[in-house]
Write a structure and sequence with these properties.
The protein is of the alpha/beta class. It is 39% helix and 18% strand.
Length: 290
């Protein structure tokens, strides 16, 4: 069987199973089975597919048809121009998070100390470390996530400090210039509406955060207030229809700015820590989610 024929058969199977962009997905899976880049398929379309590659390709197609995300099959996802290793146990990096990174890089001063809370694969922290001269620290409560982040840091030659901790609990007061986070923000009620690939395969602890999706923000924002220096920057990603609620949670902060994603949906919150000797307490809010 030639690569061209194998590709056509794979695309047909994926299409019949209702998989989105079946041709592209088949190309990615076949290239992965061959341990090559996709461009290889064009130049070698008439090459014979080896038995071993066929076995791998068939397994990948079966996993995809059963709903496994392509990124967990290939164990890679591009983020900010770099390939990151991903696996079950960490969230798959999304394009909108690149905008969060861009916003932070545009506001990072030389030698800044930056904390990435809930680092997951490490894509945020590693990108910031590689794109600036900041000293970057990370936390995550998951040992699996930290192991994957360390692997990515080593691959990309990034100097980041990885700490297993709940939020910023491992660090003293007023020691960072910037806190950045893409925390869980999906309301529990939305679980049933998520795509099967997301709901059944990505870690729930990285997706869901209580009835309104704001549970982590209610803890994270006061923690950021504690560890940031006066005038320090807090940068957060949040979900659809959460802009007003996040802004309310940031009511004690200064210079609040909301940035949209590429679809012009509010997605990123930026705020400066007030210049006060003692951080004020931040109240909790409840919301009527309809």
């Amino acid at each position: 069987m030639t690569l061209q024929t194998a590709l056509a058969q794979g695309a047909k199977l994926l299409n019949e199973a209702g998989v989105a962009v079946p041709r592209l997905t088949a190309e990615v899976l076949l290239a992965h089975a061959l341990r090559q880049e996709r461009i290889y398929l064009v130049a070698h379309a008439n090459d014979e597919l080896t038995e071993l590659a066929w076995i791998h390709y068939g397994r990948y197609l079966h996993e995809k048809i059963r709903g496994k995300p392509t990124q967990y099959i290939t164990r890679r996802q591009e983020f900010y121009g770099r390939d990151f290793y991903v696996a079950p146990g960490v969230l798959i990096p999304r394009p909108e998070t690149e905008l969060l990174v861009e916003a932070v890089l545009n506001r990072t001063q030389p030698g800044a100390r930056i904390l990435d809370i809930g680092t997951g694969s490490g894509c945020i922290a590693i990108t910031v470390a590689k794109e600036s001269d900041a000293r970057v620290y990370t936390t995550d409560i998951s040992a699996t996530a930290l192991s994957i982040a360390q692997r990515n840091a080593t691959t990309h030659g990034a100097i980041v400090q990885l700490t297993r901790a709940d939020l910023a609990s491992a660090f003293p007061d007023q020691c960072f210039d910037i806190v950045i986070s893409n925390p869980p923000y999906i309301p529990e009620a939305d679980r049933k509406n998520l795509a099967k690939e997301v709901r059944d395969h990505e870690p729930a602890s990285a997706l869901f955060a209580g009835a309104d999706g704001l549970d982590i923000y209610r803890r994270l924002i006061p923690e950021a207030l504690r560890v940031l220096k006066p005038g320090g920057l807090l940068a957060l990603e949040f979900g659809v229809n959460q802009s007003e609620s996040v802004t309310q949670l940031l009511s004690a902060w200064h210079a609040i700015e909301i940035l949209p994603d590429l679809s012009q949906i509010p997605r990123i919150a930026l705020a400066l820590r007030p210049h006060r000797s003692h951080p004020p307490s931040v109240p909790s809010f409840s919301y009527d989610i309809r």
